[in-house]
Design a protein that fits this description.
Radius of gyration: 12 Å
Strand order of the largest sheet: 2-1-3-4
Number of helices: 3
Order of helices and strands: EHEHEEH
Structural class: alpha+beta
Distance between the termini: 8 Å
Organism: Halorubrum rutilum
Largest sheet: 4 strands, mixed
Keywords: Disulfide bond, Electron transport, Redox-active center, Transport
InterPro entries: Thioredoxin, Thioredoxin-like_sf, Thioredoxin_CS, Thioredoxin_domain
Protein name: Thioredoxin family protein
Pfam families: Thioredoxin
């Protein structure tokens, strides 16, 4: 099963810059257990609209069955890892 973490962000978003190091740590530790996809909402508005992203940062955890969890705002590592685990990572 493929597990994806979609990170909806923008270059001008301060809280997004706070979220980045947390995501990098998780990716280093979990490696190939999931795919991290960074979505710049300024460049990929169609994708942001598809997922109904209205605030930044927004993190969406999904697997082959669909969206498992969604976080709006800076999210702590433990919460992200729990959602990834629930999704099958």
């Amino acid at each position: 099963m493929t597990v994806r973490l979609l990170d909806f962000h923008a270059d001008w978003c301060g809280p997004c810059k706070t979220q980045d190091p947390i995501l990098e740590e998780i990716q280093e530790d979990l490696g190939d257990a999931f795919e991290l996809q960074k979505v710049n909402v300024d460049e990929e508005q169609d994708v942001a609209n598809q997922y109904q992203v209205r605030s930044l940062p927004t993190l969406i955890v999904e697997n082959d069955d669909g969206v498992v969890d969604r976080f709006v705002g800076v999210t702590q590592r433990e919460d992200i890892e729990a959602a990834l685990s629930e999704a099958g990572a």
